[in-house]
Amino acid sequence: MTGTNGERVGRRRFLGYVLAAPTLVTAAEFGLAPVAASAPAPASGAQLPSPDITDVIDLNDMMTLAALPTSGLISVEVNQDGTVSFALPRAEVGQGITTSTAMLIAEELSVPLDRVRVTLADARLELVFNQLTGGSNTTFATYTPIRVAAAIARRRLLDAAATELGSAVTDLTLDTGVITDRSGRSVDIGALAEKAASTRNQQVPVELTARANFTVIGKPHNRIDALAAVTGRKKFAMDLDVPDAKPTMVCRAPTINGTVRSVANLGEVRAMPGVTDVVVISTGVAVRAETFGQCVDGVRALRVTWKPGTAEGKSDDIVLRELERAELPLGLPSPMPTVEAKFTFFFRGNSALEPNCAVADVRADRAEIWSSLKSPIVAKQTLAAKLGLPPSRVTVHVVEGGGSFGRKLFFDAALEAAEVSQKVGRPVKLMWHRADDSRQGRTHPMATSRVRASYLGDTVLGYHQRHTSVATDLGHGLGEIITATAAQLPVGDIGFSETFFQLSQTMSYNFGISTRLLSETDKGFNTGSMRNVYSPDVTCARELIVDQLAARMGKNPYRFRRDFLRDERSRAVLDKVAEVGQWGRAMPAGTAQGIAFHAEYKAVSAALIEIDCRPETVNRPIRDGVTGPRVTKVVFAVDVGLAVNPRGLEAQMMGCISDGIALALTSSLHLRDGYFLEASWDNYFYTRQWNTPPDLQIIVMPSTSENPGGAGELGVAASMAAVACAYGRATGTMPTSFPINHGTLSFTPKPTVPPIPPSPTDGLEHAR
Amino acid sequence: MPEHTFRVNGEQVTVDVADDVRLLWVLRDILGITGPKYGCGINVCKACTSHLNSTAVNPCAIPVSDLEPTDEVTTIEGLPATVGQELHPMQQAWLDHDVAQCGYCQPGQIMAAVALVRRIAAEGRAITDADLDGLRNICRCGTYFRIREAIKAGARNM
Q1: Of B54, B75, B96, which marks where a domain is finished?
Q2: What Å distances lie between residue A384 and A22, A358, A419, A526, A641, CA to CA?
Q3: How many CA atoms lie within 13 A of A523 on its CB side?
Q4: Hey, which residues 429-458 in chain A have their CB within 8 Å of chain B?
Q5: Cβ–Cβ below 8 Å for A689 and B133
Q6: Over the Cα atoms of chain A, what is R_g?
Q7: What is the average per-residue pLDDT within A69-91?
Q8: SS3 content of chain A, % helix, strand, coil (to 5)
Q9: A342 φ, ψ to 5°?
Q10: Which of residues 560-579 of A touch B (CB under 8 A)?
Q11: How far is CA A167 from the centre of its chain?
Q12: Residue A170: what are its φ and ψ, rounded to 5°?
């Protein structure tokens, strides 16, 4: 057992550190997660195998590899009050990673979960690539290092207790934060926190708890922040009490990314009640006031002349033609029978319920920023450059976020808040109006996916998919990781979008020769990696084609998938949803089941959906809402290898199902004349209660691995695809345009000038 | 500036602010009561749902001058006190079902749920799926199914 820093030195033995500190602080290097990808399972039956690059390396491996050379440590601190502290270098935005992280520490340190305090680390430049929350990578990448640090703390505490109690370490037990010897004498770990501390940094080998002995990991646990959430005590960025940080909003252009040419009435707006400052910034005109309500009034009163934006004059149909021109060929027509189709996916918004927002306090020689940031290092570097300050003078606090879905990979609001604070010389609390968030915020790019599959008899000979998309902006740090590592990968000289695409997609079926390519066009839109990025669209297209192939071969969709899936683990989730969901049960005309499969993040998932497309359901009345077909039942099975917190995993899958339903049926942005028509949650039809399946079951499969895979985004693709497949079977027509209701505009668009709607005054009339 | 007097979470408050400032901003920006969240500002997303004299309202759409001195505003922070407990039964149901994900919408969801259950109880009937379908609060994390389960459980203990 030899090894350099943080290296794995045995089956479960690792090296970590005890750090010089007044109280016990133990640490491990980031990048300890195992890297070996599982080898592809042997092909089943007589089907043609589809070797795939993701058998060798996938996106999670690459992000973990990228972290290896970093020297930054993550540390666990035992406090004198018996609590244990850990600053997680990731963003909690609802996905439950503070809870799962606390569980890892509780497991290795044998302390009750409620003694573990997980906070979010400020931006740490020394972590280089390793403070990015994305790609469903958090648990995968932190699983081993956090446990190593906690296990070393446990060992140090036992050593200190042995001295304190005069017992051999082997005679001690550590349980629920208390160490007891054979005679029954005991000492709390808090009382040992100083004694176990070190005056110098030391490297220490440690053995981790075997999976068979886990008592915390793998058991369902409620969120550690649940009480704060239900009592209103949980603090988001706009709830922080930063002295003199006054509400600020920005008057934005009527078209995407338009900028200010001139303002006719700056003085008039500055004199409005409550308004303290009005300044022109790079993205519009900022209004700072005593209340956000007065910011709304100020923004609406501004008379601004605008320069054109980056999508001037463009509408859905123009972008569709751009995509057509960027399409890559599918190859020569096959002499064999083929199934072929083209699918269209319109722009979708990735707004969280908490809008883009940040607090900034910029002084002449320093700056302090508070925001929910999934790429805080890139944010810090960019903020420093924009403000003309050295990065060491810029402190970036990562605040827990009110949802992300990819949006918080970007730091648009932090940049604006810093710019405004610098210009007015005072702290600001900057928030986007919902209309801003919808019209000028990040979107999932419009895309098309063309698929051709050839077959003969009961064999699929080839599967080819060409995905064409408006460019996805990866300029938030993930792009840097990819740039830095792409050269080492067996993918040739391709750009990082294509690399991301190749590494996040996989061919799960034995479909013979399989190819997939991404082509991008038009960088004029504010896009981003919306939850599950390319996979929902790519998988939806593939699974619809799978249903077509099944029909050609005279097999039912479940049986066909089962025959062609590549391994037992995949078949197990498919079998589970078919069994629990009673696949093939008799259903009335106009209703149907759909089934779909998706693998990513070293996990596999399957969804069985029942949908009701009968007119009486589709046309059920809801005020200012889109009803449409109702998903009446969902059965979802998931195998992430090792589920750290099965309850958290269930919650993630439920959210993914809500997303999948919305993507297939109701939610999209309509581009007209250079702007998105949607400016409200009653325009952008994310799943609501009236779209929610009344019957929903999520099955977490027994662990199939020593290591956790990713989960945060995993469920979107199979859910969207299963809804689409069910819709196709219920209506008898395969859907090819998503969401299915995009062709019908279900609301009256709000004006673009002023850019945000007035605050209503009739609240009392709606009391109920 | 005009003064406005009303009650918030059991206490009389007086604020010095323009008549047309909406109650949401009086609560959040002046009184520092941050449980009610901003999600749209136009009474659509319902993230700010609170109670006015025990019925659900959205403070983003109420000018502060609409309030009378005897009006009782209850935000999520004041909900437990309305039943004289550490937690309202609906909050406990939320914990039991581990409803929250990011938690941003949940104060509004709970306040809307309590008002819904009271209304249905006043009508002398049990909550139906159609009642739950009528809730308009957005949850972008998609916790809707757990919200439905928690409301049914919370209603049994109210």
Answers
A1: B75
A2: 33, 16, 11, 22, 41
A3: 4
A4: 431, 433-434
A5: yes
A6: 27
A7: 86
A8: 30, 25, 45
A9: -120, 135
A10: none
A11: 48
A12: -70, -15
pLDDT digits (tens, 9 = 90+) for A526-542: 998 899 999 999 999 99
ipTM metric = 0.98
Reported pTM: 0.94
Instruction: Please identify, among B38, B56, B75, the residue that sits at the C-terminal boundary of a domain.
Output: B75
* Sign of torsion over alpha carbons A39, A41, A46, A49: negative
Contact B91 A686 (CB under 8 A): no
CB atoms within 10 A of CB A23: 16
Instruction: Give the rounded distance of the alpha carbon of A729 from its chain centre.
Output: 31
Would you tell me how many other CB atoms lie within 10 Å of the CB of residue A487? 8
**Whole-angstrom distance, CA of residue A562 vs CA of residue B144:** 31
Using DSSP's 3-state secondary structure scheme, residue A33 falls into coil
**Taking CB atoms and an 8 Å limit, are A763 and B146 in contact across chains?**
no
By the CB < 8 Å criterion, does B97 face chain A? Answer: no
Rounded Cα–Cα distance for residues A544 and A615 (Å): 23
pLDDT in tens, B78-107: 999 999 999 999 999 999 999 999 999 999
How far is residue A402 CA from its own chain's centroid?
Answer: 12
Summarize pLDDT for A331-348 with one digit per residue, the tens: 888 899 999 999 999 999
CB contacts of B118 in chain A (<8 Å) are none
Q: Which residues pair with A737 in a beta bridge?
A: A344
Given the candidates 3.30.365.10, 2.30.30.140, 1.20.200.10, 3.40.50.11090, the CATH classification of the domain at A238-310+356-431 is 3.30.365.10
How long, in residues, is chain A?
Answer: 768
Q: Which fold has domain A13-38+52-227?
A: Aldehyde Oxidoreductase; domain 4 (3.30.365)
CB-based contact, A236 to chain B, within 8 Å: yes
The arrangement of secondary structure in A327-349+442-738, i.e. its CATH architecture, is: 2-Layer Sandwich (3.30)
- Mean pLDDT score, A573-593: 98
A493 band by pLDDT with thresholds 50, 70 and 90:
very low
The C-alpha atoms of residue B151 and residue B133 are separated, in whole angstroms, by 12
In this structure, the answer to whether residues B48 and B11 fall within a common structural domain is yes
Confidence check: pLDDT of A82 > 90: yes
DSSP per-residue codes, A191-210: HHTTTT-BSS-EEEEEEPPP
DSSP-derived pairing of the beta strands B55-57 and B11-16:
unpaired
Interface of A with B in 352-381 (CB under 8 A): 352-355
Ranges A5-19, A125-139, A401-415, A655-669: which has the least confidence = A5-19
Strand partners, A369: A360, A396
Kindly list the residues from chain A whose CB atom is less than 8 angstroms away from the CB atom of residue B106: 229-230
Name all contacts of A174-183 with Cβ < 8 Å and 24+ positions apart: A174/A109, A174/A110, A175/A110, A176/A110, A176/A111, A176/A112, A177/A82, A177/A110, A177/A111, A177/A112, A177/A115
Handedness of CA A675, A677, A682, A687 (dihedral sign): negative
Residue A693: list chain B partners with CB under 8 A.
145
Shortest distance, CA B154 to any CA of chain A (angstroms) = 13
Domain coordinates of chain A in residue numbers?
Answer: 13-38+52-227, 238-310+356-431, 327-349+442-738
The predicted pLDDT at position A477 comes to 62
A289-305 per-position pLDDT tens digit: 999 999 999 999 999 99
Q: Cβ contact (<8 Å) for B25 and A223?
A: no
Residues of A in contact with B105 (CB under 8 A): 353, 402
Residue among B42, B103, B138 whose CB faces A760 most closely: B42
Is the pLDDT reported for residue A272 higher than 50? yes
Contacts of A184 (CB under 8 A, 6+ apart): none
